Amino acid sequence: MLDQLAAMLPDVIDAQRRFRARWLPFHEDDSLQVDDRLLREGLQELEARLQDNYPFFHPMYAGQMLKPPHHAAVLGYLAAMLINPNNHALDGGPATGQIEKELTTDLARMFGYKEHLGHLTSSGTIANLEALYIARHEQPGRAVAFSSQAHYTHSRMCEVLGIRAVEVPADAGGRMDPDALNTLCLSEDIGTVVATLGTTGVGALDPLPRMLELRERHGFRIHVDAAYGGFFTLIADDAQDCVDSAAFEAIGEADSIVVDPHKHGLQPYGCGCVLFRDPAVGRHYVHDSPYTYFTSDDLHLGEISLECSRAGASAAALWLTLRLLPLASDTGLGAVLRRCRSAALEWSERIRTSDRLSLVLEPELDIVAFFPDTGERSASGISAHAADVFERTMNDEENPLYLSKLRVPTSLLTARYPDLRADAEWTTVLRSALMKPEHASWVERIHTTVEQHVM
User: Fold this and answer.
1) Are residues 226 and 355 both part of a single domain?
2) How far are the Cα atoms of 66, 84, 119, 291, 292 from residue 295, in angstroms, in the given order?
3) Structure pTM?
4) Domain span at 220
5) Is 244 contained in some domain?
């Protein structure tokens, strides 16, 4: 991919030269000039400093949700960044503003929205903030409920917005317990419930169909946080190598949805998306700007977002990526996700039959959580061994493997392993995010490496 990227870079520069040639020539101010030698030296120093990174690009990195963007996204971002459009008002980014509107329509259709209001954001955190901001206006004074396994974003954003937050217990599968939600709604004034489709800890899918049934009974809104798992809707069916369809088939009934293209959409950081099923919620964004929205009577994206300045380059990057890897099930992004899912299924099967490792849960997406099985049957002992394997695999000089540590309620483990002694409320386990399609070809190597470091 680097070779293809290098070959295309001159085309991007040439396009920028043609763009600039359309206007009267001018002399760039001398204050902007820098010495070639100093620039080269500075770049070399930066390159040296950037060596202090983990190999996010490599299949042996399976720790956090990190990977480089697709080279098409890099080219698309660079092509637009050289112009540097701002997708707040249409005069700040006429082309990329229109591109963003087309992209949000495509994403809304992927989730089954017939109508929608939506836009890209600078992150999934901001996308969830906007969804909860609208929820506060739609259900004033009422609380927001989310699973104990939901992302910490929701509690933080509720604090920012001054909304009361209520945590709902998770079941033995790491999903929101719908019976607990129903009981909660009988005693609490719940205005919005967050359904997480792809928890960032274990990759669990909350039972959205049951939650929609409870919405009819209790009258709350449903916001779907699919920041991590949203694109898996492309491969949601009942086939063995795909994702369970129930939650994703119901997603179009949710009141709002968040998805992060900078995760499984192969984009650089700085690209989230929020979508609303009812376009009328745009009234809650109404605000005045004395100089911004005068160049066009069309909808300016800043009129339906909380953020002001946003990189139009993010829209260009996603647009070019989806031109080459479309939102399809068997090709494009769907084919990429199938490889990630295949890797998770293969590794979980190897762990299931291993005498050195044990699964925390059966993976629902491409996240695999496990712990070293040394015969130690206490939460504290498992935590100690997991920390040891984490250090050993990462510091192996010849064959390093990068995992992450995950703290889970010990009750999640005792539900599957009743002989485990719960001498601590929390247990540290190991977690892998197999979000690169190359992981499918490296499962055996990864598995063997972990087993070798279990002492």
Assistant:
1) no
2) 39, 18, 20, 10, 8
3) 0.96
4) 80-285+298-324
5) yes
In tens, the pLDDT along 46-98 reads 999 999 999 999 999 999 999 999 999 999 999 999 999 999 988 899 999 99
Terminal Cα distance for the chain, rounded: 39
Return d(Cα 175, Cα 379) in angstroms, integer. 21
* 133-146 per-position pLDDT tens digit: 999 999 999 999 99
Instruction: List, for residues 303-334, the tens digit of each pLDDT value.
Output: 889 999 999 999 999 999 999 999 999 999 99
Supply the CATH number for residue 346's domain.
Answer: 3.90.1150.170
